[in-house]
Amino acid sequence: MSYRKRVVDGRLLYLGATPDEDFWREQWADERIVKALESARSGNLQIFKSLFPRYLPKEGRILEAGCGMGHIVMALRARGYNCEGVEWSEDTVATIQAHFPELPITQGDVTALEEPDNSFEALISLGVVEHREAGPEPFLTEAYRVLKQDGLMLISVPWFNPLRRWKARLGFYRDSISGLPFYQQAFSESDFVHLLEKEGFEIVEVTGYDPYVGLAAELPGFDLLERLLRKARIYGRIKGRINCSRWAVQNCSHMLMVICRKPSS
User: Fold this and answer.
1) With contact defined as beta carbons under 8 Å apart, do 102 and 39 qualify?
2) What is the pLDDT of residues 6-41, one digit of tens each?
3) pLDDT tens digits, one per residue of 145-203
């Protein structure tokens, strides 16, 4: 889907769709959910295969807050992690429960979890909090509450990365946004880190990921190049090299991942 983009108060806003129940119902058809979960039974963490095992504890509860189709929960459980999920979309959760009733995924609000304080050793949030137009603060407050002391949170948001900031300086992202519904916002590293530190979290690591998607979204004509790569049967190889390139990760990644800790006191 094509979005209008505009830089407002240091954040890159995406407008043109409302991330409500109808939107996610269209994005996550039943057959897509089932296919994703079947694929995850093998423990395939895809782009997170090295990052998650490095930080997630093998003992204790892990929550994916805003788990979408549930494939990360499925993959982590296949690897022996005690992971469960909460998802806002009632239709998505109903589909998961109908086909995979053994998977501990429930419907709920990630800003008002039905869990006591200090419940989880770790919390995962992948591309969730950017959809709140007023900002992610209520989610961060709730995440801090339910994490145990010394608990880790692995949280990602769209990144207002160096490539996008360079484009902004050249005059891009000046689309007319009047009357358009808000979809999401991309954060600079300093902006998002500040929000987490303000909430009380200690930063452990900051990294970008998925630079291929970042380039595909920002470079004119990339869709044509992608079709040529597929025709030449080198798409997978080129995509893998881009996603592993240190320069690309640091400058073009679509998403920003922050690993942070709730202090012991």
Assistant:
1) no
2) 999 999 999 998 887 777 777 777 888 889 999 999
3) 999 999 999 999 999 999 999 999 999 999 898 899 999 999 999 999 999 999 999 99
Q: What is the pLDDT of residues 102-132, one digit of tens each?
A: 999 999 999 999 999 999 999 999 999 999 9
CA distance 116 to 237: 46
User: Quick one: which of 108, 130, 18 has its CA closest to 64?
Assistant: 108
Rg of the chain over all Cα atoms, to the nearest angstrom: 18
Strand order in the sheet with 105-107: 105-107, 82-87, 61-65, 120-126, 147-158, 255-261, 202-209
Q: Which residues of 43-82 are buried (b: 16+ CB within 10 A; e: fewer)?
A: eebeebeebbeeebeeeebbbbbbbbbbbbbbbbbebebb
Rounded distance between C-alpha atoms, residue 113 and residue 67, angstroms = 13
Question: Torsions phi, psi of 74, nearest 5?
Answer: -60, -45
Query: What does the alpha-carbon distance between residue 95 and residue 28 come to, in Å, rounded to a whole number?
Result: 10
pLDDT band, residue 1 (cuts 50/70/90): low
Q: Could you give the CA distance from residue 7 to residue 75 in angstroms, rounded to a whole number?
A: 36
> Cα(first)–Cα(last) distance of the chain, in Å?
45
Cβ atoms within 10 Å of 112's Cβ, excluding its own: 10
Asked if 27 and 50 touch (Cβ cutoff 8 Å), the reply is no
**Residue 83, pLDDT score:** 98
What is the crossing angle of helices 235-244 and 222-231, to 10°? 130
